[in-house]
User: What shape does this take?
Amino acid sequence: METNSYISLSLAAAARRDLEVTANNIANANTAGFKGERVAFEAYLLTDPGGEDTEFVIDAGSYVDTRQGAFVQTGNPLDIALNGDGWLSYRTPEGQIAYGRDGQLSLSPDGVLQTQSGAEVLDSGGGTITLPPGIADLQISPEGTISSEEGELGQIGMFDVPSIQSYERLGAGMFTPPAGAADDAQPAQSTEMVQGSIESSNVHPVAEVTRLMEVQKSYERATKLIDNEDKLIRDALRRIGRMG
Assistant: This one.
């Protein structure tokens, strides 16, 4: 394969990766607490002492856009939003410990506080939170303490996760430590809880759709260059064959 084909192939691979990430952002534009993902690309310069240097595009990984989403008031006493950089902690139905910002909560038939996707919301010690049936006048303080006329019922955990950029994405906007990596979550220092509201996704659909169209065009250009180079090579081989 010629050098031009390798250059075009690197661009096509980068554009495809960007398409996948952007499409996932659009799909989660209405997911409560979802944080958008961005892909970082780098230029790789291949030096040739006897000729011209060649520059390729390489995928340097992705990162989480941690900017806070807008708050939407729901009036539901079980709904919560986090004001600050902290994260909620969950136990997924598969038993994984995960972190996210989805505060659209409900109670299971057994009274366990959970997300709409069925992940259990954990307290500051990593335990599940169970509320008594028929609870009235439910209050959640900025520190996450749940109380009612019966007194304190538990406390929703809020955590700072310094290594969130290296965590793996799960569904529903949640993150989990990579296999074999330590979980470095610690009690949040400057995050407050807001009752009766949820945090919207920080993805802006119009901007993401525009980006998707631009990346799609880049991908099509790259694949067209590969096809053209392939046609030139085949044409050259046919001519050589005729001369022989």
